[in-house]
Amino acid sequence: MKRDRWNSKLGFLLAAIGSAVGLGNIWRFPYTAVENGGGAFLVPYFFAIITAGIPILILEYTIGKTYRGGAPVALARVNKKFEWLGWFQVMVAFTITVYYLAIIVWVVSYIGFAATSAWGTDPTGFFLGYLGISSSALELGGIQGNLVVPFLGIWAVTAFVMYRGISKGIEIACKIALPVLLVLTAILVIRGITLPGAVDGLNYLFTPNWDRIFDSSVWVAAYGQVFFSLSIAFAIMIAYSSYLPKDTDVVNSAFITATANHGFELFAGIGVFSILGYMAFTQGVGVEEVAAGGVGLAFMVFPAAINALPAMNGFIGVCFFGALLFAGFTSLISIIQAVISGIEDKFELAHKKATTIVLIPAFLISILFITGAGLNILDIMDAFINNIGVAGAGLLEVILIGWFFNTEKLRQEANQFSNYSVGKWWIYALKIVTVVVLGFMVISNTIGYMMNGYGGYASIDVAVFGWGTMLVCVIVTIILTFMKGKEGYADLSKHKEVE
Q: The domain 22-487 is classified under which CATH number: 4.10.375.10, 1.10.3720.10, 1.20.1740.10, 1.25.40.10?
């Protein structure tokens, strides 16, 4: 069965960059940098890009392009014993899908709220009331009626894009979304740096605290940011690169993707902290007193900062939440495609049938996140799936490929059509540096959650939605691995395409 293809290398790069540039680039990176030494954080951050981010991107682009399949099939073609890892990565991606969509639903509503500053003088209270937040993750509180319309709207648009496939759906969507995202972010940056107090915000973001550079937790945070930011180790980049022509330069593509993604992080950080600097200036307090990360930054702190603007409040608010929408949507469709590719390739299903098989359960499960417990469930699942699931999948990937496969063969494959040849440093970065850092991350996170729970939630909440989520991922991974696929699906020679 002939697989879809990207119409051009530019289309692939825009899709890959769109996947990497997500919500975390706007609301996670700046605060992570501030919390870990400000300007000094950039040293381990850039070191992590070179030793982990780009090497793993090259690895996944090479595997996808060479073995022509979604993560499960591609890894099965590397070694039949590796297929289970591909399915675990797919399950991680599926889990992220069901709660990531909920955040985009909130963002869509907030574009409308921003136009009129509907959150009033208490953005935090407004946000919690808007979600109908319950007291625990197990207290669902019913479906919140005000979330139903945006929820159905986002699912409809997502389904439309996914059913159209790689070249006619995802590629076109990313060609539209990425330029719009860049323009909206540029407006935020220009507006931010022209405000009084903007310098204080930028100083807070970039002033180096060199004492922190010797703190191991800072280095782990840097690797974590790079790892999560680039969409590596949860099946996306293997799936995306499997639709590339055989003669694509994957080394150059990896450098372009990483450079664009991390450049955007810095650019967005300038806009966000310029505006937070102005907010602190108007209140006569330090920037550290108004800074926040994650959901709190987007839906509580930034609306308050928008309120404080001297002019164009509604316009800047729409730009901010519009940027979140386009960043989030391009990531969402990439995550779903990673799951669809896995199902489609192993069982050799028509694209629309595989898409239906993925979207129906994803839709049903995602209803959980428009209940009163949505935010609590999301917070717990996101922590476990990222800090244990994604990091663990990445660790297993570099161990299996780096230590139990001929990595030199992959290096030669990567260099075959590349203008810039990657040296043997790439192998050592994967086999040693990345294994050590990711191993420390996974072990320390797992022990921390076992000993201390998470986020002050009740132990039963953490057990059900944290450890329970991980257990379900493992169980479904085992089932999918042992399900019988189309005969010969793991034999690449039977699936050669006309180049």
A: 1.20.1740.10
